[in-house]
Design brief:
By secondary structure, this protein is α+β, with helices and mostly antiparallel strands. It has 8 helices and 10 strands. Helix 2 packs antiparallel against helix 3 (about 85-120), helix 2 (about 50-80) runs parallel beside helix 6 and helix 3 packs antiparallel against helix 5.
Length: about 350
Amino acid sequence: MAKKPPASGIETSGHDEVMDPGTAVEHSSAPQNPGLAPEHQRVTDLDEKEAKGMERRIAGFFLLSIVGSVFAAVAYVVFPIIPGDMSSVRINNLMVGLGLSAALLGVGIGAVQWAKALMHGHELVEERHPTRGTEEARAAAVETFQQANKESGFTRRSLVRNTLFGALLAAPIPAVALFRDLAPADDPIARMKQTMWAEGVRLTRDPSGVPIKASEVTIGSAFHVVPDGWKDLEHHKLEEKAKAAVLLMRLPVDELNEDPAKSSWSYQGIVAYSKICTHVGCPVALYEQQTHHLLCPCHQSEFDVANHCEVIFGPAARPLPQLPITIDAEGYLVARSDFTEPVGPSFWEREL
């Protein structure tokens, strides 16, 4: 009679041991959590006197930062840069640099020492949990902030806190002194109203300086233009070019919507407008001949050449100033006069 196989479907020999299926055999043990090493106590954790001393040293660094900020601003005025005197440049850079170095190093070293010596330094494990907007979560957040305040000593250590505030408040003082000095000493509106353009000055290509004939300006073309004689200047050459830069374009006469009072400012559809954006002074240089739009690449102000270069998009506050033009006896394009309004950013028109 044939033997039946075991119910499990696995054949066994007479030498095999039958294992109780209800008995579990553990082949390996789970890894044990080693825990945290004993915490290393800092001197300031063990001795309150040392903590107070460290607090005074940190406050000293913050006070040094305040002194450095004030010194940098004062040194910029006391040791002025004299044009042509390189020794004055060196002294000014040295003194201002020392003040700024003390200001930045003071607040930096003080903040690092505060974090290393006085703030909470105990090791901890932060459990991850789902973020919920429950009342329990809100209460836990408040408790966390209170605990952080307690551990950092921000409220309790008033000397450190107040000197830090002082250092942060004093830090912008050198910047105010240095950047304020960049403003022109005289009236900026008068500067921007007067350029090299005048009656009879020829329009020339930038940068070659070749005069432009009206016949050379075809419909859809755009020329970057500077006044004739710009290259002969000895002083303030780049400044004068920046103010006088012009874009010259030709539109079909029937598509040019001119102000009747300015109808003589163009010549057979040729118009000239300041190249300097009226927002912050970037060069407007992108011309789209199909729409007759000019685009400033800096902040995307857009101007409509067919309609007095009025602003149709972007932050610019006013249209681009138009340069009145005509032709001379030889057919070259010339200016009728200077611009009749200030060129460049509108913020120059604000009172200093």
